[in-house]
Design brief:
207 residues, four-stranded antiparallel beta sheet
Length: 207
Amino acid sequence: MKKFNKFEAFTGLEAAIVLIAFVVVAAVFSYVVLGAGFFTTQQAQKVVYSGIGQATSNLVVIGETYGDASGTAQSGANPGSIHTIVFTIGLAAGGTPIDLNQTVFAYQNATTLRTLDFPANINMTSGGVPGGWQWGIISKMNANSNNLLEANEQFTIMANVSDSPPTSSMGIPPSGQFILQIRPPVGAAVPISKSAPGGITNWNLLY
């Protein structure tokens, strides 16, 4: 009778142990792969949301844009040209708050490209006005004392696009075209592209 070597046998318990080991290794490997996939997906979503936020404007211009040539904003202003631009801004629907202290205003016409200063030491909501090549907040609606533009708030902006004191060769002439670009710290820039009327009066609707 043939005798079996005890080392040649492979019991069911040993087979089960080997199977469990394979299952555990496969499970760990699958967990690592799925975790890496979820992490990659989350990073891709962050990139997409960040891109949308940078490409979408959170800022809107509310109502009309006006040009002041009366000389009230600048002593000695020439009524033949517009020296200050006045308009109102607010947040777009669902937009995130915008810190106007970090917002840049840039003026451009056929001969000039210049960034306007924001004089933080002048309280324009109490009657102050911006000087040459400056901009400021002259009134607020539904807002508190800070310069953070939030939902349901409206800020009226005055931008001086001339020297101080202005000269007849500065400002926006009759039928003159310009672009005033608002560049918030987050979101796309908002260009205000307007033209002055052919005949300039003290207070002008820009179209």
